[in-house]
Amino acid sequence: MRDFFKCQECVDLLTDYLEGNLEADVKDRLDEHLSGCAPCINFVKTFEKSKDLTSRLREQQVNIPREVQERVKSFLKEEIVTLSSERLK
Amino acid sequence: MVVIMKVRELDQRQVVEGLKALDTGVIDDFVDQYSRPLFGVILNYTKNPSDAEEILQDTLLKIIKKIETFREESDIWPWMRRIAINNGIMWLRKHRAKQDRTTHLEDLLPKFSRDGEFDSPIYGWTVDPEEVYLNSELAGELYEAVQSLTYEYRVPLVLKDIEGYSIKQISSLLGLKEPTTKTRIHRARLFVRERLAKYFEGR
Ligand SMILES: [Zn+2]
Fold first, then answer.
1. Using an 8 Å Cβ cutoff, are B57 and B42 in contact?
2. Which domain holds residue A11?
3. pLDDT tens digit string along B176-203?
4. Among residues 104-143 of chain B, which lie with CB inside 8 Å of chain A?
5. In tens digits, what is the pLDDT along chain A, a chain of 89 residues?
């Protein structure tokens, strides 16, 4: 007889579970636990939601201080002088 | 009199030709247009603004120097973004030693009783469909959660869940074994979930 998974084991396996990396036998046992465990069902849903929300940070804009942009521009101007003179050689 | 400075929007062809020609006017506009999103990408690798500035300078210079190798039929933004990511990672590999170690990850991982059950109740989240497009409060909370991870956890998470890289790619970029990368991503996800749970349950 095989052991039933505990909540902790399910949580440990979640990333592999969601990426589809679990062996069939392990996945079955996890599904079996999930089918009867309300806290784990909530955990899986919120874990996935959290992951989806994180991926949206990709579109998140941060502020860049005006001075930083200005310093970057003058840094590049100096570098361009060097690059241009190298090209002339 | 108020003067509103309007940033001139360059199209991709103008950027590419201007950078190739080392046209300083175009380069200024290019900085106005791209330094902000690039700065955002770079801040995922270092939280220190002056380090981020240094990486940004280096990234922009690399973009200018490498523009000849850019394939013009492809989209320029992902190409620039990749240069920023690689620069961020290179910087981290060089400066790893002086990085912060302030998060106590353990404090925010889920707790279990001795028989492996959750120590405290796990609630569902009611997320409005509207909120799927991050409102600014939620986005701020999430950004803070990710930023509060130490780089060992933050960088693999960012590369996986924000940049969409594979475990294999991340492992080779960071010089980690694949199981280590996977464990770090998993724990970072647990940490972020826990922080968001506090946010959703607390409002
Ligand atoms: Zn359970």
1. no
2. 7-88
3. 999 999 999 999 999 999 999 988 887 6
4. 110, 112, 115-118, 121-125, 127, 132-134, 138-139, 142-143
5. 456 789 999 999 999 999 888 999 999 999 999 998 999 999 999 999 999 999 989 887 888 999 999 999 999 999 999 988 888 77
Angle between helix B76-95 and B49-66 (nearest 10): 130
The residues in A 34-73 lying below 8 A from B, measured between CB atoms, are 39-40, 42-43, 45-47, 49-58, 60-65, 68-69, 71-73
Cα–Cα distance, A74 to A70 (Å, whole number): 6
**Residue B190 corresponds to which tokens in the numbers above?**
């647990």
Residue A29 lies in a domain: yes
**Residue A89, min C-alpha distance to chain B (Å):** 16
Is residue B60 within 8 A of residue B31, CB to CB? The reply is yes
Q: Which CATH number fits domain B105-202: 3.40.630.100, 2.115.10.20, 1.10.10.10, 3.40.50.720?
A: 1.10.10.10
| Selection from B84, B22, A87, B169 nearest residue B76 by Cα | B84
Residue B103 in tokens: 């998060």
